[in-house]
Amino acid sequence: MSTDDSLEALYRETILDHNRSPRNRGQLPDATATVGLLNPTCGDQIRLDVKVVDQRVVDIRFTGHGCAISMASASMMTEAVKGKTVEEALGLARDFKRFLTGERPQHDLGELEALSGVSRYPSRVKCATLAHNALEQALSGSPPNPAGDA
Ligand code: ZN
Q1: What single DSSP character describes residue 120?
Q2: Tens digits of per-residue pLDDT, 66-96?
Q3: Which of 25, 70, 104, 111 has the most CB atoms at less than 10 Å from its CB?
Q4: 33 or 146: whose pLDDT is higher?
Q5: How far is the CA of 55 from the centre of ligand 1 (A)?
Q6: Which whole number is the average pLDDT over 53-63?
């Protein structure tokens, strides 16, 4: 097994794990912003509840259904941004979307790097970025990509 193969196996396992046991799944009764988004090309749906206090994401939850990539990406994203400032969270979303178009991320993306293989499949990029687009809308209050395009 080459290094590339074992890295891909690790990535696949990370994605499957988040898909099987999603983190931060549910709704927030005291959310300060809620955004629902649909990825029509795959049928993925997500609802994101965010609670922001003093410009910090103190809590975040998601519900929805869709392919393994969209759900794993949402799960990893909520873990990555929980506790971060709004500025940091938006920076991570931007960085992740750049990463999926083949650019080098400016920050450590953590487990989200497991989705690097998605960049080879443009139609799946929309699955992986759905939760990040929802996050951007929830935190900025304006839709950066109304059609959900990557
Ligand atoms: Zn999908």
Answers
A1: G
A2: 999 999 999 999 999 999 999 999 999 999 9
A3: 70
A4: 33
A5: 31
A6: 97
CA of 68 from ligand 1 middle (Å) equals: 7
Q: Kindly give the distance from the C-alpha atom of residue 64 to the centroid of ligand 1, in angstroms, as a whole number.
A: 11
What is the DSSP-derived secondary structure letter of residue 2? -
Q: What is the pLDDT of residues 12-36, one digit of tens each?
A: 999 999 999 999 999 999 999 999 9
Look over the chain and give the mean of its residue pLDDT values, rounded to a whole number: 91
How remote is the CA of residue 87 from the centroid of ligand 1, in Å? 27
The CA 132 to ligand 1 mean position distance, Å, reads 13
Distance 59 CA to ligand 1 centre (A): 25
Structure tokens at 45: 């749906």
Domains of the chain with bracketed CATH: 3-149 (3.90.1010.10)
pTM score:
0.89
Cα dihedral sign, 99-74-51-84? negative
> What are the strands of the beta sheet with 33-39, ordered from one edge?
33-39, 44-53, 56-65
Q: At what angle do helices 68-81 and 86-100 cross, to 10 degrees?
A: 150
